[in-house]
Automatic annotation (TrEMBL):
GO biological process: negative regulation of apoptotic process
Alphabetized UniProt keyword annotations: Coiled coil, Isomerase, Repeat, Rotamase, TPR repeat
E.C. code: 5.2.1.8
Segments forming domain PPIase FKBP-type: 8-93
Protein's name in the database: peptidylprolyl isomerase
Pfam families: FKBP_C, TPR_19
Annotated organism of origin: Hippolais icterina (icterine warbler)
Presence of keyword Cell wall biogenesis/degradation: no
């Protein structure tokens, strides 16, 4: 009884997940997530919002709605394996994000969502990956119950840079070069010497024909990582292009 979960609300569920041969691969007496945030497999994302508190449901999930074509190491799910989930909806409540949380909780939540984004990225679901990375940034930037200490602040900044670099990679996979460039520049505002962001920014500037800017950025990346073959290749490509006679 009771209303079904609304968008943005947090749910608590009891979950059992089994393979076709009956082997149990998941057992969580109280899994907490917000449907739509990409923190769980798609079968639960789609199925739990149809339930009412106290209801027990069974979801038979084909592999695209479970752990995808590659399967998973943890939990141990074979490639292309369908799963049967037994789900009990325990509780529905408003989501926790707007509330101040301790810095350590913000860090843990941000890390979990970034790892979930990596899960989606590895399965070529780049839109879901981007959504998880943005949710990770939202968690990292949320209000805290107390100012973070120096080590916590440093770790928050490191996680933000990782998320922004991952956002740039996902945006590129979705064919959005301008958004990818903006994510790189946001990462560099936090960490001006981040080699990954410098390299990707240089590549994107070169693709836009902004060769002088691209060369400047790539040379800075090379100073930080002189042995990087990709940077050498990009600079060589730029030099060759600039040496060609221009068409009239």
């Amino acid at each position: 009884g009771g209303p079904r979960p609304l968008p943005g609300q947090e749910v608590s569920v009891k979950v059992l997940g089994a393979l076709e041969d009956g082997g149990l691969v998941e057992r969580d007496p109280r899994l907490i997530f917000v449907p739509g945030h990409g923190d769980v497999v798609q079968a639960l994302e789609l199925g739990v919002p149809t339930m009412q508190p106290g209801e027990v449901s069974f979801f038979l999930a084909a592999f695209p709605y479970a752990y995808g074509r590659p399967g998973s190491r943890e939990p141990d799910v074979p490639p292309e394996a369908p799963l049967l989930f037994e789900v009990t909806l325990l509780e529905v409540r408003d989501g926790p994000d707007p509330q101040p949380l301790p810095p350590a909780v913000r860090l843990r939540l941000g890390s979990q969502r970034r790892e979930r984004g990596n899960f989606h990225f590895a399965r070529a679901d780049f839109a879901a990956a981007l959504r998880s990375y943005r949710l990770s940034l939202h968690a990292l930037d949320g209000p805290t119950t107390a100012p973070p200490g120096p080590e916590e602040e440093e770790e928050l900044q490191e996680q933000r840079v990782k998320c922004l670099n991952n956002c740039a990679a996902a945006e590129l996979k979705l064919g959005r070069a301008e958004e990818a460039l903006a994510a790189c520049e946001a990462a560099l505002r936090i960490s001006p010497d981040n080699g990954r962001a410098l390299l990707r920014r240089g590549q994107l500037l070169a693709e836009q024909g902004r060769d002088a800017e691209a060369a400047f950025v790539l040379r800075r990346a090379l100073e930080l990582d002189p042995a990087n073959k990709v940077i050498h290749t990009e600079l060589s490509r730029l030099a060759k292009r600039q040496s060609l006679p221009s068409n009239t």
